[in-house]
Specification:
It is a single chain. By secondary structure, this protein is mainly alpha-helical. The chain has one domain. The chain has 6 helices and 2 strands, in the order H-E-H-H-H-H-H-E. It has a two-stranded antiparallel ribbon. Residues 22-38 and 147-158 have low confidence and may be disordered.
Length: 158
């Protein structure tokens, strides 16, 4: 049986992650066990194995679909980033044009975060309280804080 304290902790984690995803707040990828743990994916995998097989499969499929849908926006985001850079570097700064491009960039990021938020909601609706506690821990380890970025890596930008 899940205790009140652990349930409250799980709910705080879920709400924190969902708020961050919904608002576009930068959320960092967690280091799982501490500074010496260089295998966070293995730790998350062990947690997911605690789920019933059908729920683990649902998790992987839901997150894979969400990642694919979110990745479809990456080209638009890269193009918008270049457009913003060009506007900033122009001889004459076009404030209105920059604001429109910045608004478009913000909307693209909002769409990407909404995709991931919908995936979490889909899973949470399908999981029991104990399974949601595992989900909250997986999300905390993936997005909760530490190093990296929302997507768990430090990529180069065009």
């Amino acid at each position: 049986m899940v205790g009140i304290k652990s349930t409250a902790t799980a709910m705080v984690i879920i709400l924190t992650v969902m708020f961050a995803l919904a608002t576009g707040t930068p959320v960092m990828a967690a280091s799982d066990s501490g500074p010496g743990d260089h295998r966070p994916e293995q730790s998350r995998r062990l947690l997911l194995q605690q789920l019933p097989a059908d729920k683990e499969m649902l998790f992987h499929q839901t997150m894979r679909d969400a990642r694919d849908r979110a990745a479809a926006l990456n080209g638009e985001i890269a193009a918008q980033r270049l457009a913003l850079k060009a506007i900033m570097a122009a001889e004459t700064f076009a404030e209105e044009q920059w604001q429109d491009a910045a608004d478009t960039m913000q909307e693209l990021h909002r769409q990407r975060h909404a995709i991931m938020q919908d995936a979490v909601l889909t899973l949470a609706r399908s999981f029991t309280a104990a399974e949601r506690e595992i989900l909250a821990e997986v999300l905390e380890r993936r997005f909760g804080g530490g190093r990296g970025g929302f997507h768990g890596h430090r990529g180069t930008r065009p």
